[in-house]
Amino acid sequence: MNLSSDEKSMAQTSMANQASEKLIVEIDGFRFSNGNLSARPISLARELPYTLFVNDREVLSISTLPTNLKELFVGFLVAEGVLITKSELKELHIDNPSRIVRIEIDAPVERLEIVQKKGMLTSGCAGGMVFSVQSSLRSNYRHGPLTKINISTILARMKELDTFMGIYSVTKGVHAASVADHNCTIKILEDLGRHNAVDKIAGWCFLNEVKTTDKIVLTTGRITSEVLVKASRSSFPIIVSRSSASSMAVMMAQQSAIDVVTYVRGGRFNYFSNGGVELINDIEETT
Q1: At what angle do helices 69-79 and 225-233 cross, to 10 degrees?
Q2: Which of 46, 90, 119, 234 could tie 104 with a disulfide, CB 3.0–4.6 Å?
Q3: Which of 171, 167, 180 is closest to 10 using CA atoms?
Q4: Strand partners, 37
Q5: 148-280 belongs to which CATH class?
Q6: How far apart are CA 74 and CA 54, in angstroms?
Q7: What is the DSSP secondary structure assignment for residue 197, as one 8-state letter?
Q8: Predicted confidence (pLDDT) per residue in 64-112, tens digit
Q9: Which residue from 112, 114, 92 is spatially nearest to 101, judged by alpha carbons?
Q10: Which part of the chain has CATH 3.40.140.10?
């Protein structure tokens, strides 16, 4: 189904903290449908590379959908274990014309050394960058009784993510991630790759000082070891995907006591219980 110009405009303007560049680009192409090949403009998600400098040292470049860049790069540093408290973040400046992000942080040298190597993080779904996966897991960050999560909550929050009228509704070419609780989806952010989308959510929670130990993080993409590390570093007790998980991600989730929910579709899902939350079945059995 083709979206109207008004619907495309709504999808674009719904994105917060947009960069000066447009998020959707139309390029002339051809569409094959009902036995006919016809010329038409094709809507594509815009991809731009931004280079990150930490304390005036070039760290890496990330190709991204140019929106919520502050959240993306802060979330990346949180996932790498470089940023732990908001007070350590001293300055953040985004130069859109030059596509440079400069972040000043006050952190111990050993943490800064984690990212003192230059690299390239692509926007693709296979290219997450975590410099030390196993050592990046965070443990023993939960105290007290486990948060109770209803099965109906998981189904409802995934439906809200799936039906979000964002860039995906126009281009079918991005991933989304969200943070949610029992009552509602709190924030949804999109990017070209699932890693970047989860980083944006991690960064948004970090910058807004959102308590994550009783929240759900959801993603439209696969849960790989890199994505699991991002959830662990951000202290989420449960991660939910409409897609699959890798075996390494599930094994790492066991080590860090994060519950994993996959293939949330049509009222069904797979569940790996690792002591992250107390899952409550509030759905009546059907015959």
Answers
A1: 90
A2: 90
A3: 167
A4: 32
A5: alpha beta
A6: 11
A7: H
A8: 999 999 999 999 999 888 999 999 999 999 999 999 999 999 999 888 8
A9: 92
A10: 148-280
Q: Pull the structure tokens for residue 51.
A: 């280079």
CATH class belonging to 48-132: alpha beta
How is the chain split among helix, strand and coil, in percent rounded to 5? 30, 35, 40
pLDDT in tens, 206-254: 999 999 999 999 999 999 988 999 999 999 999 999 999 998 899 999 8
Strand partners, 51: 61, 100
Please tell me the distance from the alpha carbon of residue 274 to that of residue 3, in angstroms, as a whole number. Answer: 42
Contact at 8 Å (CB) between 258 and 237? yes
C-beta atoms surrounding 100 within 10 Å: 15
Question: What residues does CATH 3.10.20.10 cover in the chain?
Answer: 48-132
Q: What's the token pair of residue 1?
A: 């189904």
Cα dihedral 151, 248, 85, 76 sign: negative
CA distances from 226 to 37, 99, 162, 261, 281 (A): 40, 25, 22, 16, 30
Q: What is the pTM of this model?
A: 0.84
Beta strands 48-54 and 36-45 are: unpaired
How far apart CA 44 and CA 187 sit, in angstroms, is 23
